[in-house]
Amino acid sequence: MITARKAGDYLKYNKINKMPQFDKITFFNQLFWLFVFFSVYYLLLLKVFLPKLSAVLKARSKKLKKGSDGVLTFTKEKQQASVSFNNSVEQMSNVVKNALSTSAVKTNAWVDSSLRVINKNELDKGNRLMETSLYKQSVASFLLANLKVK
Question: Where are the domains of the chain?
Answer without folding.
Answer: 4-149
